[in-house]
Amino acid sequence: MGRRATPLVAGNWKMFKGPSETASFCAALAARLHALDGVAVAVCPPYVSLTKAVHALVGARIAVFAQNAHWQETGAFTGEVSPGMLLDAGVAGAIVGHSERRRLFGDTDETVARRAVHALEAGLEAIACVGELEAEREGGLTEDVLRRQVGAIAAEVGSHERLTLAYEPVWAIGTGRTATPGQAQEAHAFIRSLLDVPILYGGSVKPDNAAELMAQPDVDGALVGGASLDVESFAAICERACSRS
Ligand code: PGA
Q1: In this structure, which of 16, 38, 139, 244 has its CB flanked by the most CB atoms within 10 Å?
Q2: The one catalytic residue among 70, 98, 118, 188
Q3: Band of the pLDDT at 173, cuts 50, 70, 90?
């Protein structure tokens, strides 16, 4: 397993772009990327915009992922969406365990692992996020945190052909403080020693740092937040990934 044949660049839109904006954005992105080869691309819109993205991207080689998925198929879980519902809507995969879900909405190592397992069992791809807080890095705890977070996923899932991890140091998310290529490589190599699946880097990836990050031997692509909201910036990052393969 280990590496991807082609790198993956996924755009995590977070709580941006409703259905109307999604349709025009996806049409523009598909047109901009139609000749691009050698990179897999995904967009991750908010739930209400997923079907718009799916329809706007018919015929384009751009997958649509959700930003989360529940661990049961149906039930009294107000505000949640299940993997089967996502598949029914034409969605190919889901992010699970993003640090914003962990920090702001109570996801734990255990619920993240359950979300990942069920997404994979239902037939979705899963991008499971891990990463340390700034204080944890400064306290020399980065490897302990990654061992705990990856270990919880590995214990439930093991390696799986549709599982991707994303290393997203929390101090680099939305801050403009990207991990250095060396820091990213070191963390990715450590994660790969725990679970040998493709690993994306996330945290302030921009067109001008994407090539160097994705050139690292254990970096298999990028999970892009802010820069994925603009067609030109996101397309430029996808191009940088493709020159890596
Ligand atoms: P950012 O977000 O690129 O805006 O730092 C990355 C993420 O949270 O996935």
Answers
A1: 244
A2: 98
A3: very high
